[in-house]
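Hello K.,

You asked for the raw outputs rather than the summary table, so here they are, unedited. I folded two proteins back to back in the same session to keep the settings identical. This is the first:
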Amino acid sequence: MRYRTLGSTGLSVSVIGFGASPLGNVFSPVPQADDGALIGRAVDAGVNFFDVSPYYGAGLAEERLGAALAPYRKNVVLATKCGRNGADSFDFSAKGITASLEASLRRLKTDTVDLIQAHDIEFGNIDQVIHETIPALLALKQQGKARTVGITGYWPGLLARVASEAPADTVLNYCHWNLFSDDMDAALTPVAERMGIGLINASPLHMGILGGVTLPEWHPAPPEVRKAGAEVVAFCRSSGVGPATLSMWACLQHPSVASTLMGFASVEQVDAACAALDLEPDAQVLQTVRRLVAPIHNTSWPQGRPENEDTNRMTAVSEEDVIKVTKA
């Protein structure tokens, strides 16, 4: 395993992170009896960064992760989220944020988390996120209930704008830097680099599309993206390359991302992701994959409030804004 420092936090995280949404049975049922073996395999492989949310299975993922992580808690970096409670249920108020973390700490069987994040901010009122949610997170940090605070979401330009206006230690973006997309770099990556914000990448499989599994009915990707994903998966398998391994390998090439989170439902999936650490993909395979992806490269879908969607894919953030917040 390789490790990187998470921005200016001082936390050292594994470049492959454990996304715990499958423990909430988000995509399909995952046997709870396997939790100990699954977490144990990840820890044995050197994974030390675990990310979860109360949204995943209405607290179920936190409960399962907390129980399975108990023997390893002192040796891992544990992150959870707040603000999103259901598919259409959000509460970014200071009161809601505080209550959410208190409940998460109980489910996770810990007194403090290493990272607390506002979850999917594109679904919130951005003024509230900047002026109420993030200050509430900072207050929880001062109380010792979280070591660092961050924001997460789908639109990289929106995340860049919020990070430029309110202090955050980390920012997590999903589905915008993998085999299908690289538009995270147009706005978010430069801001994170200049401000010393820890950059976390998520969904290397594009929310499961590159995993070769049956997708749930609620999956938001348009048909053409799903079709391209099926073509890439079929080609990889015919070429003797695991699509999940190749997808993780692609994400590991980003020089500024501290950790890439993949949702793990089995020890085999942990092994497939970790195989990317030693992968040397064939140039012809990469060329064909890029050709298959080209027609839908950087294709986005509606997510969150319409007013929060990136305009022309990205929202520009001025150097003056970055300097202003950095000095705050």
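The second followed immediately with the same parameters:
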Amino acid sequence: MIKALKRAHPLVVFTYFLGLLLLAPFSRHPWMTGVQMICLCLLYFYHNRSLKKFLPFIGLIVIVAVTNPLFVQRGRTILYADTHIRITKEALFYGIHYGCVLVNLLLVFSIFNQYIKKEQWIYVSGRFFPKLGVITSMAFGLIPRYQKHAKKILNTRKSLKKEQPVHRVMNTVSMETTWAFESSMDQLDSMNARGYGIGKRTHFHLFSWERKDWIHIVEIVILMILNLWAYTQYYSRFFFYPMIIWPVFQMRDLLWMLMMALQFLLPCVWKENFNVRN
């Protein structure tokens, strides 16, 4: 997957993640959410082979699952009740489900950050929205510089002067804010001197559109359309309240589960992953 997505055209990579973002946040059916979570966990652990980094996601599911029954007391199946609170099975399952949906969305963005680099984002956004591309490139450059500069100031003040941690952080924030404004003004003057905003500018890039990119983007679009159609036809009307009614599992459901898994794991089966010459 690393070879396939890193060597694909940025438009192909963005289209792939757009398909994930169209499906992951709006999932209403537990089967659909479960397939997405399995696929995204496989992709996540492919890059971050540490269970410790995944523990916050598990904690998020637990928090949503526990808090939802405390605030939402709908549902017929009562698990616990007293004079002040009533916990139902439906509210508990609803919390677990939407905790998983939230984790799926966070996993998509986590995997997104593994593949989308500054140059790819500027290339895609700059071609269609030039001003957005310039602002994004400035943000991508300023934020890491800001963090690095802040750490340097904190370490210097810690070694040269004894002061309370709160005062040290406040002074560092003040110095960093001044430095950020001065740096932005210098960058603005430099851009004005180079003619930004005057006429249409060109930019250098190493991305080229190849035949395999056509094939990949057609595959992504076809799977995206099929899964969105299946979602609107069969899986967008699952209800947790007032009671959970599980529909009978059919071969149609298995087919669409496999189609969704294929869309999420599609880059893993592209031949670029197995082409030794690349």
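The CA atoms of residues 27 and 36 lie 9 Å apart.

Happy to rerun anything if the numbers look odd on your end.

Regards,
P.
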